[in-house]
Design a protein that fits this description.
- Helices cover 49% and strands 0% of the residues.
- By secondary structure, the protein is mainly alpha-helical.
- The protein has two domains: 128 residues, Tetratricopeptide repeat domain (Serine Threonine Protein Phosphatase 5, Tetratricopeptide repeat, Alpha Horseshoe), CATH 1.25.40.10; 132 residues, Orthogonal Bundle (Lysozyme), CATH 1.10.530.10.
Length: 304
Amino acid sequence: MTVPGKFFVALAAWALCAGSAGADSNPRSFPAAPGASLDNAGALVALAVKYEHAEGVARDFAKAADLYCRAARLGSADAQFALGWMYANGRGVSRDDGVAAQLFAMAAEQGHGHAREMVRYTRSSAAAPLPRCLLPEESAPETENPEQADATAYPKGPIFDLVQQLSPRYAVDPKLVMAIISVESGFNVRAISPKNAQGLMQLIPETAHRFRVKNAFDPAQNIQGGLAYLQWLLAFFKGNVPLVAAAYNAGERAVERYRGIPPYPETRDYVRKVTYLYKKSTHPFLSNLAETSSFVALPVTYRK
């Protein structure tokens, strides 16, 4: 990939003020280092910096890349940026500008300042491979018990009746809709989130506009907007319920970028809650409604 000279100037400038670096297409897997918790992104990044810059330990770029990758999986923007830097420079891994651009974009989406600078000079592509530690884990096929899947009982009333009435129009299982409403708003018609998501199905203004909802606090309009979005997500992710739930919470772009459920704690908790209430892992979908995502044929799970 040919990039302008400003790209290398920006890289050099960042090196002077931050001093982090890079990774391989598949970083090696090392035993947990002493003092590093595998679920503490900050500790993993701090240890990676030591291995990268030989601070009290022998320099080991490959181990630094592995540690950055583990922290990136946990959602650390600093780790995503540092791993991208290592790919851009071929430190401990094979140089790959496409992977570097993907990682810079991930960090930039979380507000990382240096990453935002880098994305000005690189082009991210969803087709670029990601390090293995950032890909979804494979899981054994689920055996579903229809009686268990239908076991959740929701209170009868106007909301329940609306969902039963409207869901068939969008070919969405009412039980999935009730699970989403339960987790999103707890059946509070006037619910408003800190991000200004509104109503029963917590539609943000952009989503409400996208699906022609004029009053997000009107139960029927809100449910119709949420149903339209669920119908679209089911088509886009080929009926994969955990991915649909993740996208409903974090957005389809985030799910595509991470090739699965993003590492955000809020999103993982959200998916856990929805899939506890709605135990079917797949759902019928309309194949002609949306151009499907390119990666959802992979087995998908998430780390608890």
